[in-house]
Amino acid sequence: MTKFARKGKGKRPGINTASLPDIVFMLLFFFMVTTVLRETNLKVSVIVPFASEIKKLEKKSLVSYINIGKPLMTEIYGTAPRIQLNDAFASKDQIREFISSEREKMSEDDRKKMTVSIKCDKNVEMGIVTDVKEELKKASALKVNYSSRSGTKKEIFSNF
Amino acid sequence: MAKRRELQEINAGSMADIAFQLVIFFIVATTMDTDSGIFRRLPPMPEEEQKEEREIKERNIFVVLVNKDNQLLVENELMDIRDLREAAKEFIANPANKSDLPERVPEEIPYFGTIPITKFHVISLQNDRGTSYGTYIAVQNELTAAYNELKNELSLSKFGIKFDDLKEDDPRRDAIEKVYPLKISEAVPKNIGGT
Predict the structure, then answer these.
(1) What's the predicted TM-score (pTM) here?
(2) Inter-chain Cβ pairs, chain A and chain B, closer than 8 A
(3) Subunit contact B133:A130, Cβ cutoff 8 A
(4) Thinking of the domain A44-156, which architecture would CATH place it in?
(5) For A142, which of A66, A122, B42, B148 could close a Cys bridge (C-beta 3.0–4.6 Å)?
(6) Under an 8 A CB cutoff, do A136 and B42 touch?
């Protein structure tokens, strides 16, 4: 009689799933902590230009976004580039209001670090961007990020 | 007498399923894309009184014009964007101390001692209202790249470490920033032509 005799032809034991909820909860907490909920629906189409000297935006709570591009629903809103603040189209005169309301939301210390990220489509003409920049100067929101994504030389110089 | 029945435990078998549903919700609602881009500081709005421009010597200013047909005019000469980076680097550093490039003023900087830097140089970037944003960013990118390359070269030769690898609060970083201060002036565009 061997010591390690097989105990009959029993069924293979199933994998113990008792710890499955724990694992799933771990995943859940990971996603809950890292989540930044989508705040706005884009109403303009934005394909940001390519660049190589880019830096990442660190704290999302300090960043306000200004989207500029052609409206998605061209049959209703036409094809002229528009500015989108929060969830709605806006004119450039509303930017100052927007900046001050964004400032209100921040704590006293964070207000100085406020960054405005300009997400502008690469085919938009500079005129509208310049107007936005002027408005930002007036609102003294001077830290600006020109949103762009990393690309090769060929992609960066595609306009030339 | 009937024995009191023990409390029945709650069946936890479906806990995993419920948690999975929550996980899926968060995965869907999450935006993982981190925004990135080129950082700039806009100049503050000038006060009404000090409207007059500061006198800037001709040699200290590097004019880059971009028109609506995406052509570059650098220091009154047509230039290809591929040459812009080198031209900007030469202008910012003025290594040969040429008389038509910015003057080098001795300045005391930690780690470096007193070294000549092109303290008063300004790169003036002007664009047409019709210039496309992509073109504008490409030019901005090249100018930023010129600064970054100079900083990297200096950092490598002096400290043996890349500028990007220096920590945010490293005093050596500040020293290099002082040698090559970023000075790009974005003037309010006029219609440069090509309309």
Answers:
(1) 0.78
(2) 170
(3) no
(4) 2-Layer Sandwich (3.30)
(5) B42
(6) yes
